[in-house]
Amino acid sequence: MNVLPDPERNLREGLCLHRQGRLREASAHYDAVLRLQPDNAEAYHLLGLASLQNGQPHVAAGLIRKAVDLDGTFAPFHLNLGNALQEAGELVAATHCFRQAFRLDQRLTIALFNLANALQKTGNLEQARKTYQQYLGYDSPMAEAHYNLAHVLRQEGRIQEAIDHLREAVGIEPHPDECHFELGVALQQSGRSTEAIEELERFTALHPDHPPALYTLAVALMHIQATGEALPLLQKCAVLDPTVPEYFYWLAEANWRLNRYKQAKTAAQVALRLRPNYVEARGLLAIASVTGRTISEADADELLRESEGWQNLRLLTQLGSVLIHNGRTTQGLAILDRVESSDPPAGELVKSALLLPAIMPNVDSISFWRRRIEEKLDRLVAQGLRLNDPLGEVGRTNFYMAYHSLNDRDIQERIAAMYRQACPELSWEAPHVAQWRHRHLQGRKIRIGVVSQHLCNHTIGKLNRGWIEHLDREKFHVSVFQIPRSTRSRDALARKISDAADYAPQVSTRFQAIRKTIADAELDLLFYTDIGMDPHTYFLAFSRLAPVQCVTWGHPVTTGLTTIDFFVSSKGMDLPGSEDQYTETLVRLEDVNTYYYRPHAEPGFKRTLLLEEKETRLY
User: Fold this and answer.
1) Which of 211, 415, 509, 526 could be bridged to 546 by S-S, CB 3.0 to 4.6 A?
2) Is 244 left (phi over 0), alpha (psi -120 to 50) or beta?
3) How many CB atoms lie within 10 A of CB 567?
4) What is the DSSP code (8-state) at residue 250?
5) What is the pTM assigned to this prediction?
6) d(Cα 540, Cα 508) in Å, to the nearest integer?
7) Which SS3 state, helix, strand or coil, does residue 16 take?
């Protein structure tokens, strides 16, 4: 290489080579300049930058410091010395350089950005936040500054501000993948699971093997009761990175919710092996170990003692529920009292308030639990309870009340009113409803929709399949909305029902998506085969998705909802005077409104295969 004797020409030639990425040749020219002019600050500066680009930050810092010593008034020297020191891990020294660079030239706003980065790395979150905010006050800030500031704000617990800055980052640079991931995390932290899912799905579509994103997406899905979708994501996380205990804890939680108790225990045990002091995993293991079996008084007492060390209120509510459903009400109520006194999230308060044992030992117990619900409802309403997503935050119905053989109208109305007050967004109305008039039916078929989570190999599916198949298609257009069940795949009966419909779209497990799918069908009448058996259809029924909405006795109790117009029953099921037990208009048909296909006995089936005593009745 021909090194020129002229320092200025050497510097120009070196800078040209530097810009081309030919760092070794550029450095030779800078060395030549320094041999000719040992006090050339710019040559030291450029040689230092070349060393920094070559991955030698300590060497770079030494060279650029010489440039600063020769000319301490030139701001870029201080800026790049700070960059070299930051790369070398000397963060405190780097912050001094960035501050001096900006002090010398306030047009050099990149010095503020780099200062904020260094402060963030030192853990000085408050100063980092203030410096990012100062930088963002100047024109044309980088998307990265919003992104980094959002990360600081999340660490400080200022989640909504973090969300705002992440959205700003996405607005400046429409496709920054990491912004979508961080935005999804922040939205999930703020309890906005549906929005979080949208961002995280966008990110995971591009990065399908990113365990933290898959994990956060799975947890968000579980918060909206889409556990069936979350399970394979958590299983994938556990395969991609089997060292993270949280992946196995939430895998255990998903399996437990899907009634896969053996798999839940196994996953919880793995989480505990990875982190022996993982209190939540130990608690979930205890819950999974007793769910689905009889719990003795001694076991219940032991669980109560063990739970004293738990801080996770959701887990405590789960344990209280399991104990109460198993008849261990003393221990279960003690746990729920502890939850309620710990300033729990609103959803945990509602779960506790509406909890009922599956089986009541006597009439006095029925009175006690119903009185408890009424008292708790009064408190929730009085304190102005707020819910963002009742399906995700509560995710239950008061299913067992229908078995008390009492008039449930008042309690059902009060529960519905509590939810409407807590979450006004539940009272949504489909756009076509306001314009609908009865005369619009003239000259066309009546559009009927049937919705349930149980239009499959379930009693509800068997009761309703026949009339869905045989309803007069000269008069009616029939849509079927089969909300997927988390615990089973689409079975043969589900396919027969959807095949019998004129329209059977694929339905999501996500609340707003379900609601939109039904609203888009612009129905004249929406028929719920059951309300109260699962939380999806219960909360869906708060909306006005059709001008006329009906329910039948798939779950034989009034809904308490002003948005359900008719309860379709029969004279054999509801006696005269039963109207006062319903908020809906009671329709008493002459016969039951079912079309039930006779089941086929397996070939070779004989009664004696099941019974030793031929005269014993078989139900």
Assistant:
1) 526
2) beta
3) 26
4) H
5) 0.80
6) 13
7) helix
| Per-residue pLDDT tens digits for 275-301 | 999 999 999 999 999 888 888 999 999
Distance CA 170, CA 181 (A): 11
Q: Where are the alpha helices (DSSP H) in 471-510?
A: 492-500
**490, 203 in Cβ contact below 8 A?**
no
> What's the rounded Cα separation, in Å, for the pair 605 and 389?
49
**Radius of gyration of the chain from its Cα atoms, rounded to whole angstroms:** 33
300: its two tokens: 């219940």
| C-alpha distances out from residue 192 to 184, 259, 447, 470, Å | 9, 26, 34, 43
Whole-number Å distance between alpha carbons of 459 and 400? 18
Helices 261-274 and 279-290 cross at an angle (nearest 10°) of 160
Tell me the C-alpha distance between 264 and 311, whole Å: 20
For residue 568, what are the β-bridge partners?
Answer: 552, 587
- Cα separation, 318 vs 314, whole angstroms: 6
Closest of 510, 341, 394, 534 to residue 452, by C-alpha: 534
Residue 26: closest CA among 53, 62, 58:
53
Question: CA 76: distance to chain centroid?
Answer: 46
Nearest to 141 by CA among 164, 177, 112: 112
- How does DSSP classify residue 2? -
Give the torsion through C-alpha atoms of 6, 11, 15, 18, to 10 deg.
90
Q: What is the pLDDT of residue 487?
A: 45
Tokens of 425: 């967004």
Distance of alpha carbon 109 from alpha carbon 524, whole angstroms? 61
CA-CA distance, 250 to 312, in Å (whole number)? Answer: 14
Amino acid at the residue 176: P
Both tokens of residue 304?
């109560």
The confidence band for 170, taking pLDDT boundaries of 50, 70 and 90, is: confident
Tokens of 199: 């961002």
User: Do residues 78 and 98 make contact, with C-beta atoms less than 8 angstroms apart?
Assistant: yes
Residue where the block lists tokens 């405190």: 92
Average confidence (pLDDT) over 537-564: 97
Look up residue 297 and give its two tokens: 């008084």
- List C-alpha distances in Å: 386 to 66, 144, 350, 393, 509: 62, 35, 10, 11, 23
Kindly state the helix (H) or strand (E) to which residue 481 belongs, with its residue range: strand 476-482
